[in-house]
Amino acid sequence: MQRVKELFQRNQPVAYTGVITHTLKWLSAPFITTEFKNPKYHGDDHGTVIYCIHGTFDGPAAFSDLTQKLLADGLPDHISEIRLVSFTGRYQGNSIEFFAKQLDEQITKNQHSNVILFGHSRGGLVAAYYSENLAPQKNVKVHGVLAISTPFKGSTKANSPLKIISTSVEEMQPDSPFLRCLSPKIAASTIPYHYFAAKDDALVQPDACCIDEHRSRMITMETSHGHLSILSSNMLVAFVKEILELTVPVNTTRSSMRPVRR
User: Fold this and answer.
1) CA–CA separation, 94 vs 213, rounded Å?
2) Which of 29, 36, 47, 151 shows the smallest number of beta carbons within 10 Å?
3) Packing angle between helix 14-28 and helix 2-11, nearest 10 degrees?
4) CB within 8 A of 174, min separation 6: which ones?
5) What is the dihedral of CA 183, 172, 219, 131, to 10 degrees?
6) Which of 132, 134, 133, 178 shows the shortest CA–CA distance to 155?
7) What's the pLDDT band for 254 if we cut at 50, 70, 90?
8) What stretches of the chain adopt beta strand conformation (E)?
9) Per-residue pLDDT for 15 more than 50?
């Protein structure tokens, strides 16, 4: 498998190599929630926890490259851990709200009151729905939502037959009732949102990766990345690191995350 991967990398664009690399991880990694402790964190149980939320047909390992690179470079010392989230009820046609409620259950069970949410594709919508509708009910402070290739304005690929068998796919259609309801909440939110798009994304066009009111907050990867390969982008890692460094410690009263420089 490794030889196939290396051959593919030498001869194909990064958007294509990302597909095979991503697929190999999907096939080999377990579908369980995995946690990675920050060795620099020496505080109590109230540190900020990063929750990584994968997309529709993906798994927790989708964020493994990004996580390992962030840990290797060193996380800010107010981040206590990173969690790659797994869900039950996948491939059963469930809604985005269904998965957001599972995220809520996990955060509540873990007694985490300060979180940052990374979401890829549908995972970004799960993160946004949780942040705007469920987190306030539990007094959970969301210090930021980082949405990667997320169809906030929908995807033209969310068509039949998948929309018939999956509520969440139907919710990701352009101008769906779900998106029409969620977007104004995001626009009025005090939570800092950051958006990342891939130039060669065949599933979610870059212009659909953020709401209109936040257009200035979106960064498009211009190095031929696609829907999957963006998660292994070194440029993405650099931007994420900068965002995390700008996070204000949780014991202050200021806004918890300032917009990253573009």
Assistant:
1) 29
2) 29
3) 160
4) 153, 154, 155, 156, 158, 208
5) 50
6) 178
7) very low
8) 34-37, 48-53, 79-84, 114-120, 141-148, 193-198, 218-221
9) no
| 3-state SS assignment for residue 221 | strand
**Tokens, residue 236:** 């993405």
Predicted local confidence at residue 242, as pLDDT: 94
Residues with Cβ within 8 Å of 181's Cβ and at least 6 positions away in sequence, in order, are none
On whether the 2-245 domain is CATH 3.40.50.1820, my answer is yes
What distance in Å separates the CA atoms of residue 18 and residue 2, rounded to the nearest whole number?
A: 14
Percent of the chain with pLDDT over 70: 80
Q: Enumerate the domain spans of the chain.
A: 2-245
Measure CA of the first residue to CA of the last residue in the chain; give whole Å.
Answer: 38
CB contact burial 160-193 (16+ within 10 A = b; e otherwise): eebbeebbbbbbbbeebebbeebbeebeeeebbb
- Nearest Cα residue to 141 out of 114, 119, 118, 117: 114
Longest dimension (CA), the chain: 52
Beta-carbon contacts of residue 188 (< 8 Å; ≥ 6 apart): none
Count CA within 13 A, CB hemisphere, residue 59: 14
> pLDDT digits over 27-84, tens only?
445 567 789 999 989 887 779 999 999 998 888 899 999 999 999 989 999 999 999 9
Is the separation of the CB atoms in 47 and 215 below 8 Å? Answer: no
Residue 106 pLDDT greater than 50, yes or no = yes
Kind of pairing, strands 79-84 and 114-120?
unpaired
CA distance 221 to 88: 32
Predicted confidence (pLDDT) per residue in 154-177, tens digit: 998 887 666 667 899 999 999 999
d(CA 61, CA 52): 10
